[in-house]
Amino acid sequence: MPLEVKNLTKVFAVGLFRRKEILAVDGVSFSVKPGEFVSLVGESGSGKTTTAKMILRLLQPTSGSIMFDGRDVWGLRGIDELRWYWKNVHGIFQDPYASYNPLHKIDRILYQAFMLMGHSSTDKDSMVEEVLREVGLRPDDVLGKYPHELSGGQRQRIMVARCYMLRPMLILADEPISMIDASTRASVLQLFSKLREESKTSVIFITHDLGLAYYVSDEIMIMHDGSIVEKGPPDEVIDHPQDPYTKRLREDVPLLYRKWTGF
Amino acid sequence: MALLQAEDIKAYYSVRKGYVKAVDGLDLVIEKGITVGLAGESGCGKTTLVNTLMMNVKPPLFLVEGTIILDGKVISKMDRSTLKKNVWGVLASIVPQSALNALMPTKRILDFVRDVISHHMDVSDSEVVSMAEKRFEELNLPVEALSLYPHELSGGMKQRAVIAVSTLLNPKLLVVDEPTSALDVSTQKQVLKILMDLKTTGITESMIFVTHDIAVLRQIADWIVIMYAGKIVESGSTENILHDPEHPYTYCLINAVVTPEPEVRKRGLTSIRGEPPNLLDPPKGCRFHPRCPKVMNICRSKEPVLVEIGGSRLVSCHLFPPDA
Hints:
Chain A is built from ten helices and ten strands. By secondary structure, chain A is α/β, with parallel strands linked by helices. Chain A is globular and about 60 Å long. Chain B is built from eleven helices and twelve strands. Chains A and B meet through helix 7, helix 8, helix 9 and helix 10 of A and helix 6, helix 7, helix 9 and helix 10 of B.
């Protein structure tokens, strides 16, 4: 079991004088098997990104445990253990622009991934080029450029290229395709599938897009007000929702082949 | 009678390297009482087209050629001050993309209402307030929102307030540019609802809805126009376009949409290879030919024309030759 989350809770305290506590994530538990695609679906403010940040070690949980490959994620000590974690758990964010240092060329972010793998630097150029071709980018188009010179789709693909080099066991993809035009979405999703086939990578899709979740996942978890209200395989959760919130969400999504009634 | 008629529109951006042909020889007719959905990838000229139709043309954008007739008036010949006085807000309103970020943070919603009304009418302040309250009630919006500042409203509420304010003077045509792309699905539905209400209450007659989300158009549009690289490639009724797309681009565009429906899961998701062309130097022949899965030899050299294929449906593709 690569990832096991138990009773994960995050409380944010806001206000300087009058402290107010906000329960952002409320006792969330789930697990992800090797090569499994899981979607965490919810609207803005449901706590889905907070959950992802805690798994990525970007935000300390208030309580609960996150076990990755048998080790407590928040109990990792020392650079070696952390490096092991960074190599195996990878985040892809909604706006890939924020993941880049605007002062450094694209090459650097790829070489850094390369160093994280502990390779010698002699064959790095050929390997970087190979990986870029793998994600459908021409090396000449992106190497030597700065992040602002690339399109949103290209930046997103470079994040995926990094995943390709590191072959992580788990990817947390926060709205991975919302920045990408509908016409190129399929090719990015195919890259995730390819990683799953080749390296048994698991992916947690964090999204508000019920259509995407329905299409890619083995399991869907619906999150509302910090808790998971319903989970199960897509056919069950989407086609026969039980929870009232899931039902409402399902009704609010515009469909391609059905028109809203009484609208 | 058509509400809006645009003939042979060419709108180019003048840049250092030449002209970006964002809208290049395009005809469009918007009938009365119809909601038209304008769809296409980003960078295909949707926003430029609607701005041009409103004559909201400012350098570096130029209307190079074409006539635009709105409600019997040739607006393409009008100057900016006439447009401001007699057209914008009165005959036609546009809610631009990310309009919810365009609200001045130090003004209350009611101040925007005052701005709009005082520009066109000479009425007392109490009349302005009662007009605004009446309209908000009509559209089921909370009247209290009028006295709030933009930051006190949620994204969906802001967008609905912007729509309500821009239609205060009952414009015949309302143009909305990507009004829901930044919103959650439940807020999106509320915004779509208010747009529907505007039409059913008769506040506006026709609407142009610009989006890249075809599933949204399914819910709201009567007619769909598909644009690619500055040109119309196909137009037809929503039912026809969705169930029986004729142009390869339309077909690809629909197949790139995922919605939680069994049909979609069955058909899968496909990408359109390549990227939209650079409009500084669009491809010769059919502009879609470098990406088209059904490309033929003729497509590389000869540009197809829009032909009617029954039911006032138009397609611009060599698979549908004009004489056939």
